Amino acid sequence: MSYIDGFVIAVPKTSREKFIQHAETADAVFMEWGATRVFECWEDDVPDGTVTDFRRAVQAKDDEAVVFSWVEWPDKESRDAGMKKMMEAMETDPRVSVENNPMPFDGKRMIFGGFVPVVALEKS
Hints:
Radius of gyration: 15 Å
Low-confidence stretches: none
Order of helices and strands: EHEHEHE
Strand order of the largest sheet: 2-3-1-4
CATH topology: Alpha-Beta Plaits
Number of domains: 1
Helix content: 25-40%
Shape: globular
CATH architecture: 2-Layer Sandwich
Number of strands: 4
């Protein structure tokens, strides 16, 4: 079964186009290194919660949008290999180096993790 990396970040609303350009470049590298799908989702209906919510999770400010993203891999082994390449490439590959493709958001507030699907429903 597939393996999923999930991410939530806060991006300045004025940097939407910069974010899209950054993501298109970096996400193509994930695909090159084995990912089967990548989604970058800009907030549309993200309510404030009573106890917690997406905005609080990443300490989003009023002028920031929440972005929910995930990368789907064929399996954890493919993910581990792809992420290892990504970490190494951040030093050498201009497509994903911080100098050439800077993150248009505060990476310190990113939340992320790897997940094993336990239920997967799809229409054919």
